[in-house]
Amino acid sequence: MSDIIVRTGGEAGDGIASLGETVARCFARMGLHVFGLNAYQSVIRGGHVWFQARASAVRPYSQGDGADVLYCLNRETFEIHRVDLRPGATIIYDPEKFAIAPGDVPTGARLLPVPTLAIARKYTSQAILQNAPGLGAMAYLAGIPLPILQGALSDSFGRKAGDVVTWNLGASADGYEFARQHSGANDRAVSPRGEGKLLLTGNQAIALGAAAGGVKFLAQYPMTPASGIMHWMAAHSRDLGIVVKQAEDELAAINMAVGASFGGVRAMTATSGGGFSLMVEALGMAGMTETPVVVVESQRAGPSTGLPTKTEQGDLRLMIGAGQGEFPRAILAPSHPKEAYQAAIDAFRLSEEWQTPILLASDLHLSENYATVDRDEIALNVPIAPIATASAPATGEYLRYAYTPSGVSPRSVPGQPGLQFVAGSDEHDAKGHLISDVKAGVPIWVAERAKMMDKRMRKLEGLRAAAPPPLLEGPAGADLTFVAWGSTVGAIRDAMPILAAQGISTNLLFVRTVYPLRSDIVRSALEGARATLLVEANYSGQLGQLIRQETGLLLPHRLLKYDGEPFYPHEIVAKAREVTGHGGH
Amino acid sequence: MADTSAPALRASTGPALPVIGKSDTKPTWCPGCGDFSVLAAVEMALKRLRIPSHNVAVVSGIGCSSNLPHFLSSYGFHAIHGRALPVAEGIRWANHGLTVIATGGDGDGFGIGAGHFVHTMRRNVDLTYVTMDNQIYGLTTGQASPTSMMGQRTKSTPNGVIEAPVDPIALALASGATYVARGFSGDVKHLADLVANGIQHRGFSFVDVFSPCVTYNKLNTFDFFRQRVYKLENAGHDPTNLGLAFQRAIEWGDKIPIGLFYTVDRPTYEDLEEVLSAGPLAQQPAGLAGRSTLLDEFA
Asked: A218 and A256 share a domain?
């Protein structure tokens, strides 16, 4: 892949994320596809944060390996990242801040000392301009035209105007010009090509997809990395007519969402593993009362508080098993914002059709990082079916939980005359009457209980057929078949062409719905594979365990990562070479 | 795209539609339970206000008293333990044309659900919360509850309760509830008045009811309360004075007040949530068809 990778780092509070996002935005406006990685810590100031923007004409699915341009706002950034540069890389720094000894410069890299502080002082004595000259230099080296940089920078200030904007435009142009005079562009510098792309995070894509899928109510409690969903939705609440409620805790959040759904609107909540753990009981209530609800579970490294700003896929078993007893659910696991948008739409469609909770599994890597989509990849015109499907019966009484072949019963909502019912978290009969107290254990009601369980669980089989099936990407008969779910798919997709160039053909079984598993499709894909490699960001290979349970197939080769960091393509490549007998290259 | 089957506004419904009544499910409470009176009072209040049963949602948690929604002809949601209020809030925000009533016990509301109790009140959500406070866990056969009195011997406190009880009235006053009342199952007419006025009140209305458990609480019995309760309205209490309301709330001894402690007009959550100014959420259009300019922010 012909790509460029621009990286910048400094302390939390230095404005690294907005610096990186501006570069990523420029690439997107140039018509390039982008992946933007925002690496940060659970502190508001201090610590080391960095952002990496990778751009290419061909869509990158991960942050890629190494960097071509590295802008160091402090010495620590240089020390950490100098070992991870590609040949021909340029290191931007300000000698007034710290010195770099010639012997410390990595082989093949060159230094571009930019007087960022001196340039900034031309405009103001306030310490608010230091990033702009470095941004200009980065942009020049990467091949970003100055007008695109200035446009993106102006837009990043929004409606703010005045000196700060003018100074930033001036200082960034000075940095751009300085780099032009003192350096050539990077060998991998890109040029504009065609219509601009849209740049968004996984969380933004999920929120947008939920809105397109008809959500009218979101209740959420702040928790990294899911908070971005609430932020986007709250900012658009009035415009889109979506009620956004920051609840007192996750217990309230999901119960409010279930109540709103019962009340007649599509409703959702979003959280990470800790908050989801609190939601477990109400998830079962939604299953028992057959009330639709969409729950986004954006995973971060656990257990417990874990690593709040680092990624993991450690909650699959939790999501599958959440709640006492058994009830139908599905777990969708998109890998990229483009898919996350569609997954949110699918989640609402499935939840309404099957009247049961649907989980959308994300993780920090998907939720908080940036990627591009083409405008026509975001189809906003989604059919929204009516929520109430029941009408007054011609004879007899309305049975909210009527036995049907699919397990789905006609649903009424409060306000409809003559269709009143009580949604009970206790076991109930077709009418909704409890069979949990005086009737429990009486023979005819014993049979009724089993019949009602069968009815609900038939919906699991319906969901199995209706949810997005696993996809086999890449050539048939490949040397190696990767098996993955969620954001891990990105680095695999980027590793596949690298391996192909090395003469190793690979394909990928992307399990888009992890539960209920299409064991028929998984089994046929894996039985036909010459070799397999399970790739997951958790300790025990939870998808592999599920596949073993559902198909009896053991995936002997596993690449598991649980250090909080996302997968990089080179890690996938190395393991794939080893598994296919090409190790030790 | 509009949801054409969305429910109608309360105001647009005529009196021809059936008002609330009992359902065909008979209560399973012990004979003599105080909760029968609360059921009767809720039914009387709704009948008096002529609210059609299809425009009412009664929500409860878990406990003896939380079975109440099954005994009425309205919509109901019998939720999980302690979560009646957030479910009720969600229903109310989905369709604020509905009359939403939450019911439950002292364990449900002031123990496991205490956090929601406080937050629902400070939001002033326009719903009515009726608690059947029997100062004991009945359904689990007689353990101490958050309102059990100091020293009371129960299955879980054989040597007596050693923690101070929650005072639901004082807690409600402190949390910003805009209608705070207490009733007694021994006086159904008075209780029905309190509930009816609470339903008509714009904002969160709270009616805590002394509803004795005849099986597991041998201390706080009907007789216990009959000997002690007096009516605030007969004692010259000014229910618009928060300070005096607090004074009455902490009265507990030979004399225990019932009636309206406090009421005030304050904008409801639904008044202040701008999205709801366009009408009940369930009747508003959903989806993003034709909203392509929304994508410009990502360009």
From this structure: yes
Q: What are A416-461's pLDDT values in tens digits? A: 999 999 999 999 999 999 998 888 889 999 999 999 999 999 999 9
- Alpha-carbon distance B33 to A460, whole Å? 42
Note whether B83 contacts A282, CB cutoff 8 Å: yes
- List phi, psi (to 5°) of A575: -70, -40
pLDDT by residue (tens digit) across B59-105? Answer: 999 999 999 999 999 999 999 999 999 999 999 999 999 999 999 99
Are B275 and A241 an interchain contact pair (Cβ–Cβ within 8 Å)? yes
Q: Is A152 on the interface with B (CB under 8 A)?
A: no
Question: What is the number of domains present in chain B?
Answer: 1
Which residue type is seen at B129? Y
To the nearest 10°, report the CA torsion of B192, B221, B127, B1: -100
In a domain, B1, yes or no: no
List chain A residues with pLDDT less than 70.
Answer: 1, 584-585
Whether A130 has its CB under 8 Å from any CB of chain B: the answer is no
Instruction: Give every CB contact of residue B206 below 8 A, 6+ residues apart in sequence.
Output: B121, B128, B129, B131, B168, B172, B177, B179, B180, B181, B198
Cα→Cα distances A568→A62, B80, B175, B272, Å:
7, 44, 51, 48
Q: Where are the alpha helices (DSSP H) in A61-115?
A: 75-81
Choose among A280, A249, A269, A256: nearest CA to B115: A249
SS3 state of residue B218: coil
What gap in Å lies between CA B209 and CA B207, rounded to an integer? 6
CATH code, B42: 3.40.50.970
